[in-house]
Amino acid sequence: MNSLIRFIVKYHFALLFLVLESFSLWILANHTYYQHSKFENATRTIEGYFSNRIDRGRQYLKLRATNEQLAKENLDLRNQLSKLSINLERLQLAQNDTLSDSHYLYIPARVVNNSVNKQNNFLTINVGKLHGVEQEMGVVTNNGIVGIVAGVSEHYSTVISLLNVELKVSAKLKRSHYFGSLFWNGRDYREVLLTEIPQHVALNVGDTIITSGFSAIFPPNINLATIKSFDTKAGNFYTIRASLLCDFKQLNHVWVVKNLHEKESEMLDKKEE
Amino acid sequence: MQNGLIKYSGLFVLLIFLQLFLFNNIQLSGYINPYFYILFILLLPYDTPGWLLLLLGLFTGLAIDAFMNSHGVHSSATLLMAFLRPYVLNYLSERGEIENKGIPSMSQYGFSWFFRYATILTVAHHLVLFLIESFTFVNLGATLWRTILSSLTTLAFILITQLLFTHRK
User: Fold this and answer.
1) Could you give the count of Cα atoms lying within 13 Å of B3 in the half-sphere of its Cβ?
2) ipTM score
């Protein structure tokens, strides 16, 4: 025992070295990079803090190079943008073509004021003269027509709602293509009447009514309403009650329709007169 | 003693900081990785007790390991360096050039002595370090090159700082 202690005292330096080196090599052999100890988090925090500080300084030194890189990137993006915007225009035109034979331009708008409970209802939308809106343009949503622009100011427009007893629009049956006159009777904001459909036409409840496209205000073939019921009280013609597809109480985003061929068709009309 | 403790604590923090944020950013090639922090072990007082020397060596290595995510690589190498230090000092003092006291720095013992002292320990440290790091003897040539080039760089930095902070008496 004595000799052991003497041995340890004599060689304590080398022994301590061996113990510590074993410990160190044990760490070396047993580590993984996926440990998440608090200690490692602490060192990472300290390291990250100073690295961030230093990187900020380094960024400052690299400002010129960074600037040049960004300017180049900007240029590239600008070039891409110009290419893409041409394509986008083409696509938009193509889309309008699928909706109608003539060209229609759509101006997006938001309804800022609306009513459904009067006989003569109007809406206000947040686009006006500055956006290219003019009187007698149509206003539509994706599932129906909203109305016709009555007046425009610089930034706003007033729209005669379809729920206005004085407004009549041309509409037709999707299945048989017979057209008639669609209007609101001032009672239920979810219901409109379609008249002037001759009695020999076969009707079914649930048939779809679409815009006719005769008026040049609205593009053709927009789904409007479905037939709820019909009767023959008015002589040779049906009186059809139809429920509107679009809920006027929840109108928000609408499109103003600009007919690009309006002048042309108007001129044609005048010639015939 | 109190004064020395504060001084060495400051030196420790400074060297770790310099290593992490200055010398680790020197990436000229895979062969030049200076490990300047070993200056701490070199500059410990001559009469530092053996056990403290070893513990400080381990601790220094562990601190570097903790920040560099190298888990035991630096602690093993630095511990070995601390272990070798008394023998190197003994070997150099046998030639009768030094008095056994003070700090083994350039200002105390001169350029030539310090150069040999630092070279032996730096090369030893770097050799062990790069061997452990590569964990194989296959690319021994590359490891040796790495040891030589990195040792030269480390030594250059150590000697420059020693020259800059030498107090002529």
Assistant:
1) 0
2) 0.82
